[in-house]
Amino acid sequence: MSKILVCTGGGDCPGLNAVIRGIVKAAKHDKQENEVWGSIEAFNGILKDPPDIRRLKNRTVRGIHVKGGTIIKTTNKGNPLDFPTRDEKGHWITEDRSEELVAKIKQYGFDAVVNIGGDGSQKISQALYEKGMNVIGVPKTIDNDLSATDLTFGFSTAVQITSDSFDKLVTTAASHNRVMIMEVMGRDAGWIALHTAIAGGAEICLIPEIPYDINRILKIIKKRYRKGKGFVNIVISEGAKPMDGEVVGKTSHDAGDTHIKLGGVANHLRAQLEAAGCEAQIRTTILGHVQRGGTPIAYDRILASAMGVKAFDLIKEKQFGTMVALRNNAITSVSLKDAISEYNHVDLDHYLIHTARSLGIAFGGE
To answer: For this structure, is 143 an active site residue?
Structure first.
């Protein structure tokens, strides 16, 4: 018998519940008796005293694959290597609780841990594996920023949401002869923006990998209006920045969350264009967390389910220190070390960059 602990960490993502369900159902289908438990709010649940963990049975996961979010909750403030806590004076500090975590995992009799998360979560997985934890990673991120897998679940649903939204903005832009700027997620990788631009037929796509020149963007806009088309649709990643500029965001004041909170680059771009003399009316839309919520599309349900089953298979095979991956249309695994070795930026030689340019989409930096 195997006793398995499942964690979901970082931002929520469509398909998380399908992974959880896949693990539980595969464990139930197995000839041996297995127990699956969920740690509430990533590793926070197991670190609490008493632990906040929940037994996951078939009836617990019935029908959850169609639901967004995660039934075992998530957090981006639970890194056991840099865990937020208060000192004697009540001030927030961080401490390394990873040794304590590994000890508790063994104390409660867990044979393996499945850590479902993105780039940051899998770096934690590797660190815990090096400390003796039997861990399997499952790649989760709407940003699609893990290079060891061809695709991460949740990404396709996010692109569907952004494309649907973009389609609606195209018609209102044309009706009012406006410049419409839609901001999508993408801290360091522009995959969502790139896919949305091609799917929606954007005139301009701005991504973190190609810093933009405001004068070039203005020139493109003016050219569109001179030709009588009278509207422009721009999709921009939240992590896009101007040449010799910085990303738009604010320092987080949440204990244990060191990320700069990005958001507002669409409004920043609008201000830049207006200051540079853009005569057309400009409107902005920031989709924000809409991209993370709601029902996962069929593809993500299938991919996430397959990854959950594969995670259980890897536990059976004792292939710890690995991450489930989709490669060449097959579900396989890679070492966690390889999974986190290279961030999945948009390669400027990628076929979709060529596709976009050939369709007349400008990137604002050439």
So the answer is: yes
Beta strand 260-262 pairing with 282-286 = unpaired
Q: Strand runs (DSSP E) across 88-189, as ranges?
A: 92-95, 112-117, 135-139, 179-184
Whether residue 53 is predicted with pLDDT greater than 90 in this model: the reply is yes
Domains by residue range for the chain, with CATH: 2-153+294-339 (3.40.50.450), 158-292+347-358 (3.40.50.460)
Determine which one of 12, 119, 143, 145 is catalytic. 143
Please answer whether residues 343 and 188 qualify as being in contact, where contact means their C-beta atoms are separated by less than 8 angstroms.
yes
DSSP one-letter string for 121-150: HHHHHHHHHHTT--EEEEEB-TT--BTTSS
Residues 6+ apart with CB under 8 A from 240: 186, 190, 193, 206, 207, 208, 211, 212, 247, 265
89 - beta bridge partners?
Answer: none
The structure's pTM equals 0.92
Provide the pairing of β-strand 330-335 with 2-8: unpaired
Rg (CA), the chain: 22
For the chain, how are helix, strand and coil distributed in percent, rounded to 5? 40, 20, 40
Express each pLDDT in 27-50 by its tens digit: 999 988 899 999 999 999 999 999
